[in-house]
Amino acid sequence: MCCDLKRRFLLLYATQKGQAKAIAEEIWQQAGAHGLEADMHCISEMDKYNLETEKDPVVIVISTTGTGDPPDTARKFVKKIQDKTLPPDHFAHLQYGLLGLGDSEYTFFCNGGKTVDRRLQELGAQHFYDTGLADDCVGLELVVDPWIDGLWLALKEAFLLQKEKEGMSSNAVSNSLSAAPHVGHELNLSSEVQNLKLEDERARSSDVLTQNLGDTHLVASATDTEPSLVHSVPPVSQSALNIPALPPEYIEVQFQDTHGENPPLSSLISEGTAFEVPVTKAVQLTREDAIKTTLLLELDIADTVFDYQPGDAFCVICPNNVNEVEELLHILRLSEKGECFVCIKIKQGTKKKGAAHPQHIPERSTLKFILTWCLEIRAIPKKAFLRALVECTSDAGEKRRLQELCSRQGASDYTRFIRDSNVCLLDLLHAFPSCRPSLNLLIEHLPKLQARPYSVSSSNLYQPGKLCFVFNIVEFPASPTRPVSRKGVCTGWLAKLVAPLLHPNKSSLDTKEGCSSTEKISIFARPNNTFHLPADPSVPFVMVGPGTGISPFIGFLQHRQKLREEHTDWEFGETWLFFGCRHQDRDYLFKQLQCFLENGTLTHLKVCFSRDSSTAEVAPPKYVQDVVRLYAKEVARVLLKERGYFYVCGDKKHMADGVSDAVVDILSMEMEVDKLEAMKTLATLREAKRYLQDVWS
Description:
By secondary structure, the chain is of the alpha/beta class. 35% of the residues lie in helices and 18% in strands.
């Protein structure tokens, strides 16, 4: 066996928004430096690999979507391995390592990865490397980077064990792989030297280059003692840097004529059907002096086959801000090319594994259409993108700072000044004016512009042919890293779109309501399989929804009211609603809740106002979780004795966690058990789909 043999392992990724794929590509790139060959595929490409016969180690990188589901690309794979007829030794031959991606803001953290991991174990597969669970809430790289670092030794040991099992000599393999760390070290050193230099002066040593870069920062250090997006301080400013490998370019762009039409927006979704529907009504639910502006929009779906249940969500296909698109075109010096159609081709000889035409960009589109409807120009740039931008930057100091931000040594600066500050490409191009990326680089690194999901706030039974939804206009205030304030991509666009409906003329500002509109938006279904009313109407349920979290419960109550009108002989269980907002007179979103209470649809309505002052001797509770505690016996009765349901909708971090803590305390007190036992009971309720959440961070 020759010493330069490259051992193969299978590398599978399951991605929703591109994170898992980008990490898999990083593993694929590093594999060569370690004397290994990664056979990389999307987990959905089941015709290109076969785990039933796979003999080599398998590495899986998988994200989580929704409230704990595997990504769409993994649905078929998960369905296949969850086949109950598979024997417990089905994958007894399989050696694998799994890296799960998730967000601890959500209850079912990394559940996509955990689901696959658990099932593979049940079918007899063995870990050759410990499972990694990376948390996007604090920064994926905190787990991803060390997990990848340790992967190579684990693979080496797996290959040695494999050869021993096959009864072959492991000496050649050992020799081959023992040389790999040395190769990797040389490549890493070469990378440091190459990327720390200010100019292309190959004769200089890395020490001299590091010193020169330190000199570059001395001027700024005299006045700036604190780090910022554009400025670093020791030790980062004086460190030799470990930076990612330069991602290989794989796209070529050619501009064509300006004749023709852009594709329909329906071509932007990969599955399902998009419907273009008119906005028939817009109502501002909050007063002008409320901290947040909340709008309710009504859509006319009568002429479509779009169907929904209360509790479902749907997605709005939205564009990037037109001014930001124009600004980006101006910086890229492509303003005159905006209406030109763009031909995208794969670069001949590219080293990128599996290079393909981006599926989220229709074949014949203009440049302006691509930047407006296809690419998420507000996306937080990943480190690989920063690494590519280094090569497009001419100023030495700016180049060094971009290197720091994508380096391992600058990880905390990346988290603080880019990730946590929600910095986007435009912010970077303003902060680093000598950076002039090419269009192909943007297409390669900017992710797909995702449609935005919203909870339905109506019932098709109560309002046939209508669909309502509620949202806050998201505001991003100006900051040191972002000199201008911005509104949310979708909420800002919707607010501008329906402005004529809200203010048809100056005299009707008091009503804030319009009657008709020709404005249309494109939507598609995103059914929720669990966040629905109990199938048995006699079962009681509790709803907790402060702020816009009340949205799906309006649909619940409308539906329940109509059922009560149509089926007077049915038995209906009691209903509880806990609602909260800041001020009773400014942002009490649905004061018509009183009507549901009066007609018996709603049995109990409990409200609280967190910012209103009180003259009462005992101050009323400020938050919904505090109000829930006041009704401990009733909540316990509904959940434990009457086998009812408990729904929570709204903010995850500041509300939903507090509500679940309150329920645990209630269960502990009413069941007379310790907190751990109460937590187990709540977990059982979750598994039985009787404690349900629709939350966001």
